[in-house]
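ugh finaly. both done.
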Amino acid sequence: ELVAQEIASSEAIACQEISSAPRALTAASSQTAMLELIGQLATVAFVARLGGPSFGSSGAPLALSRVTSCYLGLLALVTVLASVGALSQSAILLDRSLVREELQLWRLGSAFLYTDGLGAGFALQLWFFGTYSTLLEKRHFPQSGLRYTGMLAAGVLLIAAQALLLAAPTPLALGHALTFYAVALWSRTGAAKSYELLRIGAVRAAFVPWCLLAGALPLVGAQATLCNTFGIAAALAFDAAVGLPPPSHNAVQREAAAAAA
């Protein structure tokens, strides 16, 4: 009888676990669908913003700069093709073994043109890279798109070199790491200045990349966060080795006028 009771108890526990599994899967899929919906709405808001004025009341540019818009156009094209199945996601992401053993070198660049499909990660890439890359390009490279492209290419090489040292269990998407590269470089141009960050309070520019890194951790996970730190490290290395050119005269004038207002 004791053995029969133990067997019955084990069967009851197994039935409970089996019945709870579909509920957990349903909850997870609901959360994923909600994040995708939020990301798509944020993407629509970003596109709508592009039809507004070129500069905000603070003097910050709202319209995308040339190189920034070209990159985001490529990102959107690759993401849409991957989402509809016209392009294999496995052929885009950075896989260390395939790069080293089969010399699939295109992955060193294609990994920067993808985040996580048409979801929240894609929308974050549009907003944050679009904002901070435009700030950098219009402030320091207003007449030299080629030099700004070279600066981004240097970031791609530095981030990819670090990623190749990481024995990641899954292939890597490095689009967000490039965003952190742009954000960290922007933060070096006026590290002591304070800015309003996501309407949560004033934050010194030097701390903005680290605040964004911590805020993104629950959304992207530990592995992607580590890759994002590669972007910050690449920016610090570039700034120490090369540095940014001085801001343009027009950018300084706009900032002074905004500060006076």
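ok and the 2nd:
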Amino acid sequence: TDGNFSGQGVFGGNVVTLKGASPYYQFKNLAGTRLGYIQHNGSDLILSADTGEVKVNGSVSATDGLFSAQVGIGTSIPNANAKIHLFDDTSGNDVALRITSNADSKNIIQFGDSADQTAGAIKYDNSTSEMYFEVQNGTKALGIESDLSATFASSVSATDGLFSNRVGINIVPNRLLHLHSSGNTDLHLTNDTTGSLATDGGTITQSSLDLLINNRESGILKLSTSGTEALRLNSDQSATFSGNEVVLKSSLATSAF
């Protein structure tokens, strides 16, 4: 009733067959305006809405289903290098990929190649509120703990690297570099000449109320100002002043010299 058929069609049972080089089935309102259509252009099946959106009420499932190219959400032209492309360039609109699991489970994004598909991972543990990055099939390289501290499995290095703000070790920093511990806090400096043992190089230590500067090697300790040496402490415990005047506290007896 009120149907309009053109081209070739075959009707039988529960099947409607449309034939042609690019057959399509379209939907119109009572005014004759096309609202959308289903078309096969010879290579692809297209479901399109001329007005509004294409919506699916309920779940979309497939058994052994496969997308042969990219999937675009919010864009009909997904990036060629992105298998899944989420897009929205509206000002103020956030674009989110949400992964939700049980309160005692982890949310996981895994990385790898065809031979080793789980070589790396980003994991969030709902039970501990911790996020961490893994390499080498489960080795934790970086952990962000629930107290917002970070744990590195090994050393942190960079080539011409730059921290844009303050750095704190075991503390929220108050200065550009802030080291803290419950006991003595040491800054240990070594090079290829001194060696790298705990007894090598030099240290700057905050010990209780005292600040200790220690050259652990049989060398000098030098203090300079304006790029010029002002005081040298020698390995034999003697001191060399570069200036021509020494001001002493009045309580210091001259017999000390």
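summary for the 2nd one i guess: The chain is about 0% helix and 40% strand.
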